[in-house]
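thread: overnight batch results

M.L. [08:02]
morning all. the overnight job finished for the chain we discussed friday. pasting input first so we're all looking at the same thing
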Amino acid sequence: MPRRSVTGLAGLAAALVLAIACAACTTPGGTAPGGTAPGGTAPGGTAGRSPPGPAAAGEAGPGVITVGSFDFPESVLLAYLYAGMLSARGYPVRVLPDLGTRELVEPALMTGLVQLVPEYTGSALEFVSLGRAHATASVAATAAALARWMAARGIVTARPAAAQDANAIVVTAATAARYRLRAISDLAGPARGLVFGGPPECAERPDCLPGLRQVYGLRFRAFAALDAGGPLTRQALVSGDIGVALLFTTDPAIAADHLVELADTRRLQPAENVVPVLRRATAGRYGAGLLAALDAVSARLSTAALTALDAQVELDGRDPRAVAGDWLRDQGLIRRDQVRRDQGPAGTAAR
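M.L. [08:03]
and the structure it wrote out:
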């Protein structure tokens, strides 16, 4: 559910129109949020020679790999991680951040408006299959199913990262101590006196309230329809308006607010591993080296690492491109002179 939104064919058609309109919003030679032309002037930087980096949104030329992102900070960060690696390896690449929801971005990928998108295995599987295939807690099975469905549409899936941005059932430290909660199953008794908070669709999603009832036997006192792991849900939990919340595993606020994520010991939640997906024509054009570069990033990206990177963007207000560059350098994936320095807050959309 964190990155999941399924729509019908009519919705896809409407989203595609929006995708085309979005792509047309960038004028030749223009600069998208956080974008800088190779050899140009970065925001806050100086003119002249600059280190390699993803090109501006309006500067795509023949063969340029356009990396698109969804409209939340972590997705923008992931786009710059993979694009930064490709740029350092010499591939022509640009980033189009904050394109919108999956209904907008996936049709853009299918039609070639963008060539690469960092996705989440479970959410992408449900979307591309129009709900006919369901992700499970098995990382391997979910990734394999996604690869099959994507292949039928001319899309290649790269290596999934260990990093997952999955559903998390969360309580405050005080609630955890009061009821001695460590796992979701420990809520069996206390649930009847607690209000559960999450997005409106939680009431019908098999991995939310119905799943919690069926798999864990939980029946809460009430359900509060809030937002999808956003500020409304977090504030309601911290203030005590709700006792249990649905958040996301990479949400840096969980640690910052001293919240407790309960263990999903019965494997209710589906796998949501980060995985780059790209057009088969793009993979074929550039060969095995392109996938190898993407896989090198995924091989080093854990849930803990992604959460720490998210904290720099969402809590510290750093530019996601600079955060991505620093991490790639620290991992030894790119040289120091291939990293653009922090240029201030990126102004990405709220989570």
